[in-house]
Amino acid sequence: MGVTAPGHAVRLIGVSKSFGAVRAVNAVDLGIGRGETVALLGRNGAGKSTSIAMILGLQQPDAGRVLLFGCTPEQAVLDGRVGAMLQEGRLIPRVTVAELVGFVAGAYPHPLMVDEALELAGLTGLGNRRADKLSGGQAQRVRFALALAGNPELVVLDEPTAALDVEARRAFWQSMRTYARRGNTVLFSTHYLAEADENADRIVVMDHGRIAADGSGDRIKRMVGGNLVSFDLAGAATEGLAQLPGVASLEIRGDRALLHTTDSDATVIALAQLGLVRNLEVAPTSLEDAFLTLTDDRTHDRTDDLEYDLAVNRSEAPGSRKVTA
Q1: Interatomic CA distance for residues 98 and 142, integer angstroms
Q2: Are residues 51 and 41 in contact, defined by beta-carbon separation less than 8 angstroms?
Q3: Average pLDDT estimate for 172-194
Q4: pLDDT (tens digit per residue) in 68-89
Q5: What is 34-58+72-219's CATH topology?
């Protein structure tokens, strides 16, 4: 995207940010158009939260520029054009939902009416309920209403459905889609990849402080192979599997091989010729499969990714390894 494109709600131009020896964000260029709903994905330490903090003006980049609607984040926030829902934050006790939303709305130049903010957040009928007497899902929707109270053109959501049950997550995303249909811009980060695939127009994958992929969910899946062919190894050797027709990458999970392939027919025929068809399955590549392939540890230079190393060491599952063709 061009730097001067008029339709940008968010623009990062050569943005970098370090914390001591850790390069959290590394020369990122990113443009988000007005009216887009964009998911920001990445493992812990990939640079998501730091990028969001710079977009909101909570941290300053060491290099590069961040622009919201063509101006600085600070100015956009002061103008009431930005709303945010961050991971941390507790609701004020002993006030009603309507009182809390009204209080926050009063800090903005052109806020929504309280009833409208409650309706957009799926809270109609709960305005008189005390904010500290809500379920987890209801409290999260109150936080969403607070992010919408100023009538922003852009709302930034950092892990908005963390710790919510399935029903509460479904209700939250219904509220978010209602807001987005008004022509507003939504940027959200999440570890629930199915949510990103279902609710985002576009997905940006960050890894090691850089952008590893950017596009629709379908496009990102095609990047690593359109289908997943899996079978039991039953002691068979894995040498040469990554070079079979159509194979883009190979992953070994215990005694099972998973082949990401752009031509599943050719791959299956080659496996049959090798006699490797034990419990063979062919399925479309999921966003989770694509994400794991794009953030494969073995495909990146990791010399300055100290924070990322620690996160991976804490979360890496035993018995899993991956080879990229």
Answers
A1: 9
A2: no
A3: 92
A4: 999 999 999 999 999 999 877 7
A5: Rossmann fold (3.40.50)
DSSP E strands, the chain: 8-19, 22-33, 37-41, 63-68, 82-85, 154-158, 185-189, 202-207, 210-215, 227-232, 247-253, 256-261, 281-284, 320-324
Helix (H/G/I), strand (E/B), else coil: 75: helix
Question: H helices then E strands: how many in the chain?
Answer: 11, 14
Residue 320's contacts (CB-CB under 8 Å, 6 or more residues apart) are 251, 252, 253, 254
Task: Report the DSSP pairing between strands 154-158 and 37-41.
Answer: unpaired
pLDDT digits (tens, 9 = 90+) for 233-245: 999 999 999 999 9
* Strand (E) or helix (H) holding 287: helix 287-294
Please indicate whether residue 317 or residue 16 has the higher confidence score (pLDDT): 16
Cα gap 293→193, rounded to integer Å: 14
Hey, how many other C-beta atoms are within 10 angstroms of the C-beta on 44? Answer: 14
For 257-275, how does the pLDDT look when each residue is reduced to its tens digit (9 = 90+)? 999 898 999 999 999 999 9
How far, in Å, CA of 87 to CA of 182, rounded? 25
Residues 35, 7: Cα–Cα separation, whole Å: 9
d(CA 280, CA 184): 45
Q: If we measure between CA atoms, which residue out of 140, 147, 145 comes closest to residue 163?
A: 140
| pLDDT reported for residue 90 | 81
Sheet containing strand 82-85, strands side by side: 82-85, 154-158, 185-189, 37-41, 202-207, 210-215
* Cα distances (angstroms) measured from residue 9 to each of 50, 167, 180, 291: 18, 31, 13, 26
Separation between Cα atoms, residue 69 and residue 6, nearest integer Å: 9
Domain ranges of the chain: 34-58+72-219, 223-324
How far is Cα of residue 185 from the mean position of the Cα atoms in its chain? 15
Integer Rg of the chain from CA = 22
Under DSSP, the state recorded for 80 is T
